[in-house]
Amino acid sequence: MTGNQFDDKLKDDLIPDAGPHAGPATHSSDMSVITSDKIAGVDSQAARAALADVPWEPGAKKPDPILVADHVVRRFGGLTAVDADHVEIQRGVITALIGPNGAGKTTFFNLLTNFDTPDEGTRVFDGHNIDKVPAHKIANYGMVRTFQLTKALSKMTVIENMKLGATGQKGESLWRSVLPFMWKSQEREIEARADALLDRFKLSHMRDEFAGTMSGGQRKLLEMARALMVEPSMVMLDEPMAGVNPALTQSLLGHVTGLRDAGMTVLFVEHDMDMVQEISDWVIVMAEGRIIAEGPPASIGQNQAVVDAYLGTHHHAALDLDAEL
Amino acid sequence: MDWGSIIESLFRGLIGESFIVFALAAIGLNLHFGYTGLLNFGQAVFMAAGAYGLAMMVATIGPAANRNFGWDLSESTLFWLGIFVGVVVFPVVFALIMGIPTLRLRADYLAIVTIAVAEIFRIVVRSPTPGIKKWTNSSDGLTGFSGTFYDMSPFGTQDRYLFNLFTGNQMFLVIVGWVVLAIGATICWLLVRSPWGRVLKAIREDEDAARSLGKNAYSYKMQALILGGVFGAVGGMIRAIGFSVAQPDNFITDVTFFVWVALILGGAGKVLAPIVGASLLYGLLNFSDTFLREGVAAEVIPESIMTGTQVGQVRFMLMGLGLALLAAFRPQGIFGNKEEMALDDR
Fold this sequence. Notes:
The complex is a heterodimer of chains A (325) and B (346). Chain A has helices at 3-11, 24-36, 44-50, 105-112, 135-141, 158-164, 174-177, 184-200, 216-228, 246-261, 273-279, 297-300, 304-311, 321-324; strands spanning 65-76, 79-90, 94-98, 120-125, 128-129, 143-145, 234-238, 265-269, 282-287, 290-295. Chain A is built from 14 helices and ten strands. By secondary structure, chain A is α/β, with parallel strands linked by helices. In chain A, strands 6-7-8-3-9-10 form a six-stranded mixed beta sheet, sandwiched between helices. A four-stranded antiparallel beta sheet of chain A has the order 2-1-4-5, covered by helices on one side. Chain A is globular and about 65 Å long. In chain B, strands 1-4 form a two-stranded antiparallel ribbon. In chain B, a hairpin with a 4-residue loop joins strand 2 (160-161) and strand 3. The longest helix of chain B is centred in the N-terminal third of the chain and has 28 residues, at 75-102. The model of chain B has no long low-confidence stretch (mean pLDDT 93). The interface between A and B is large, with 46 and 33 residues.
C-alpha cells in the first residue's frame, strides 16, 4: 500500500483498524474496549498538541517526558554502537525511532528496555532510575517491549501466551502454585481480561491453538496483545511491521494508534516509512549510533542531516522517503 | 524355558524398585528439561545426593557428631535427619553450585557443568584418600543406614508377597516407593498446570519473552533446577535403601542416561511420561535379560549366537536398537504430540 492510498483512507475518516476482513460493526465494539481501559490522567490529544512547541533538534526537551536517557554509550570492543547524548520520549504519543541499517536503533532500544547494559549513561523511566534494574522488573514499572523476531511461545496455546502476560500473579509463586484455591479466582479474572483482549485483536478463534501454528502477522498481533496484559504505561515495539503481510498492516496500525488513544506511550523502531509517516507523532533519527535529528514526521524527509545519513553527504536533493525506502 | 520366571522378571521391572527410582528421577528431569528446557546431564548426582545425604548422616557424619560433641542422637533420629539432608540440603547445594554460574548463560553451559559435577562428585566420593574415605568409604560405599527403614516394615522377612514377586523388605520399600511416587507425580501435576508451570514453559520457549513480561527467568530456572534435583534425590535415596548400600558406582553417567531414556520414551513435557517411560524401560530390560538368559540356558538360543555371559551386553544392544527405532518412528515418545513437537521455535 502506498502512502497516498493510506492518506485517502484517513481523509475518509475510515477507522484505521478496518482491515480487509474487518467490518464496521466489529470495529465500533473495538473502540469501546480501547476507550474503556484508558490510563487515568493521560490525555493523548493534549500530549500531541504539546509537541508543537518542541524544537526540531536532536535531544529536544519534551514538556512531559516518560523516558529520559542521558549520555547512553554502548561499545562492542572498539566499535561504539550507540552514543546518544540526550533523548526524551514524550508521554502519551507515538514516537518512531528510525535510521539506516546499522545505525544502532535496536541496540539503543535494548538499552532503553534494559535487555542490554550500557557502558555509560543513565536512564529514567517514569520517575524510576532504571540503570541497575534487571530487565524483568521493568515490566512491573509499566514498560513492556516486543521483539523484532516475534517471540510467540510456540508450544503454548494462544490463551496461555496471553495469561502469562499478567503481572502480580499469586500462582506464580512456587509455594502457592500447588494450592490452586490460592490463585483460582485471580486466574479467572486474568482469563477474562485475556479473552477480551483476544477479542479486540480478532484472535479469539485461535484461542486454544498452539501459538506456533499462527502466521507471522498473527504472531505480531499476539505479541502486542500479550504485552497489553502487563497493563503497561509504555509499549516498546521493535519493528512491528517486519514480516507482516499487507492485509494485516492496517489492523496493526489501528492497534498501535489505539494504544496511544488509550493513553499509552508508544516507542517503535521501524523500517516501514508508511507506518512512520502515518502514525507517529514524533520521529527520532539515528545514524552511526548518534541521534542526528528529531521532529514531527513531515519535517524528517526535508532534514539535511537525515538525507545525508541515508544517502551519503554528496546527495543534495530532498529525500522522498517513500521512494527510497 | 521357564516362562514363570520370565513373567515375574517382567513385572518386577514394570512395577518394582528400579521403576520407582527411575520414575522419580525422570519426574525431576521432566521438570528440568520437559518444562523448563534445562539440559541436565547430571541427574545421577542428584540421585547420589539423596543416597549419600542419608547414608553419611547415619553412618559417618552422625556418629562423628555424637563422638565429637558428646551428643546422643539415636540411629532413628539420624535416619530422619538423613532424609532431610538427602532430600533437601544436598540437592539444594548441588543445584546452587551448578546453577549460580550457568543459569544466566546459554543452555549448553548448564549441560557441561551438570555432567562435570556428577562425575567430580562420584570420583571424589570413591577416592581412597583417608581424609575422604572416612566419610564415604571409597568404592565399597556406605552401609548400615537402612535398618531404621526396614524396622518399620510390617511384612515378614521370610515370606514373599504379591505373587512371589517381592520379599517382605522389598514389598515394604516398593509400597513406600509407590506412595512417594504418587505424591511426587501429583505435586508435579499441580505445579505444571499452575501459573508457576506456565512461566516455566514460557522460559523453555523463549527466555527473553518471559523476561519482557516481567518474569525473573533466572529465579524460575533455579527453582526448577532445585525442585527437579529434589525429585532425583528421593529416587536415589530409595535406590540406596533398596540396595542397603550407597556406592559411587551406582551413580555413574549411565544412570543419568537411563533417566533420559525413560523420559524420552514417555515423552518429555507430559506429566505421566516419566512414570510410564520408566516402567516400560525396566519392564523391557528385565524381560529381555531373563528371556535371553532362559533361552541360552534351555539352548533355544544356540551358543554360536550368544553365550550366557553375553546376555548383559546384548540386551543393551537391543535397547540401543529400540531407541534408534523410537527416534525414527515416534520421536515424541508415548504421550508426546507430534504436531506440537514439529512446531518451530521461532
